[in-house]
Input
Amino acid sequence: MGYLYHLQIINMNLFFDRSQKNFLRSRAVASPRGNIIDSRGIILASNIPMYSLSWQGTGNRSLTKSQEELLTLLTTRFSLSAKQITLITQHERRSTRINLFSDISFEQITSLIEQISQEKNIILEKSYKRCYPHNKLASHIIGYIGLDTNTPGKMGLELLYNKELKGRSGKIVTIINAVGRNLQAYSVTGSLAGDTVQTTLDSDAQKLAEEVFPHNYEGSCILMDESGALEVVLSRPSFDPTIFLKPLETTQWKQLQEKHCFMNRAFCGCYPPASLFKLVTLAAALETGIIEQKIGWHCIGHTSFKGRRYHCGNKSGHGVLTTEQALAHSCNIPFFEIGKKIKIDTLAEYARELGLGTKMGTLFPESAGLIPTTAWKRRVKKEPWFPGETLSAAIGQASMLVTPLQIACMISALCTGYRCKPRILADELIITQKLSLKEETLSFLQKCLESVVKQGTGTHLKHLKHFTMRGKSGTAQVRALEKKALRKEHLCHGYFVVHFQYKDEKPRTLVLLIEHAGSSSVAIKVALTFLKKYAALCDSRTPQPY
Output
């Protein structure tokens, strides 16, 4: 009795499961992965149905005449090899299953289905293969998935939103006889497609950016509206996610790794902010009373401090100029003079206020960059902060490092009066924070940015019709000033940023960072080309008032 109790009560579930396995077989039914779409519903990642064909053995010791005819049909349609036919014979005897073809087109299936629909040996199953219709477009945001779509995404939204995109697989349970032959369906659980993930990206604008960004340079491009919606996120070099939908050769993977193709330079690339940091220096000087708006300056090409000369980009000097003119023409001298009077910790405070040196809080991996302070240098380099370093910091050099995304947020904040958290999903909350800067400081900085386009380094853009623009160029050093750039990797990085509005469209911020371009001139030309094409794009669309 004790043994019966053990069998029937204690281990009831165990033996019940075992008994079911004697006459039931289950197989998964694939679910389509959810689509990734842009802000206008254009598909960025989707699925292509694919069909597999398997042979289910039914226990015959040798193939029957009808089975041989079936194999002749399959050989004609799909070129069965002699090896496959031998394996089919073996699996037929064992009542086991063998997969013959894993990627049959819909056209092939429809032409065959009428002839094999009644054949119990043939199992046709539908599954899905991931599809990236635009290849490299926004690949750092979309990410990619491997050959097996049931595995999690490897990066980007494919990884971050894998749970939502994956959906739920279904299941078909079939009753089989003693030799493994399928008799009838026992139960069917339907599959559930994954959720659609809508981004803030504008695929048309992204295509324009990919088109105009010079292919012989590395760098990044960002287009963001005033709500923080990222409409363009470009990082070069990029990669084509479709290459992972088939077995990847070792040499291909090695090349992708060596070129750092998976690094999103827009979010993770760290660069000196260069002359763009002059906006922080000017804001700090005005807010703390170190200078007034109407102060004049005299540039002779250099200034001296503690026995060392600090040079302007224009070695012959700009002559007498206002602060507005100094920012427009990227004169260094006024900012060196501010650097003589201001503390590095004060500069760091205002940099953080404008979003530099901190992660922006996107869904994606980001670099924080670096805004140095006295405490940082004491902790990291075991040295005090020297006053001369503040002069270099005041023009965005020294140990300063920022990301292009931080620059986009800073320029947008200065032009709107509030910081906005950048977002990549359409349903993300819009989060803003008002700047603590005085209104008169903001107005003056905006006027200076307008002067860059009207009379300064950004005058290439001033003839664009129906645009209102505020811009700033920058040239970030990668070597000490006294060292010559002997190779391309020693050349300076070039920036150009512009906050613009075209006709009645939403105001947007465009950031271009081109690595080792030697100056900002390449970035300015790319910005000009992009804005011309972007205007044509806007004109071709139905107006969407904001």
The chain has two domains: 23-198, 203-238+265-539. The first strand starts at residue 24 and ends at 29. The chain has 20 helices and 19 strands.
